[in-house]
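A favour between colleagues. Tell me how you read the following sequence-structure pair.

===
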Amino acid sequence: VTRAEREHAALLDRDRSRLDPIGARQAQAITVRMRAAAIRALQSGQDPAAAAMARLDDLKPLLLDGMVAGHMAGRRPALLTAAPRMRRKTKLANTVYDDAIAFLRARLRLDEDAMNALVQTYTPEAVRITTELRDDVQVAIIEAVESGAGVRDAVRLLRASLGGATDSDLESIFRTQTQIAFSAGRWAGAQAPEVWEALWGFKYVTVGDDRVRLNHVALDGVTLPKDDPLWDSITVPNGWNCRCQMIEQFTGQVTRRPERMTTIDGMFVAPGPDDGFAFNPGRVFATMTGGSQV
């Protein structure tokens, strides 16, 4: 992996991560309101679970917007990288996302049907994640209420169970889901005929710091043609909070496949994704939209 490719990977991660604070800050505000509502309900003898669920419902549209924006943000650099090699040039601005969805929609020239396709694609995932969070929160509330403690102790237990862990979980969820959508958007951008025609393949590149997981380090530098089936299982992100990237390759490259097992810092490491991440978000997205590349 060259220094330029490493810097490119870090730049893509920074580009995507600009979306993280937008959702994370609002998600934290939702959890604060949810926690306060549950405690007030418990203190007044009302149903704390119902009070918390009403606040948590605000999370679904926020998460949905984050994934839609992530997809659009991912499609933009794929087109931008390919622009010098495309027969039809695409002019794309490189601007901070003040209003991510409106800005990216305008630059990508997405019509109403394309926007609806994006929303419909990511809605089930937003519902699934919100439902799982609702279940976790409800369990925490039930445990606090059924602990046999008095109201004061139950409030303390509730405050602890819905505290920092919930905030960090939400931050991780927002970061990973926008990365999945970002990756799907990049894959969709690469599928555009004018890009696909010029594209040879991809190179797997980590950001190169000491926070990269060893099984991801073992994938660093893997270089494969665009239609190699291995991309169906190692396309980024390859785990929660993964910052790895796939860099487009537009000229014939020497294929480099991952070893079945390698040694890093004296430890045997199997290259590959973390559990539950062996899929290609772009192909999943294309399947859900009937092959449409928006």
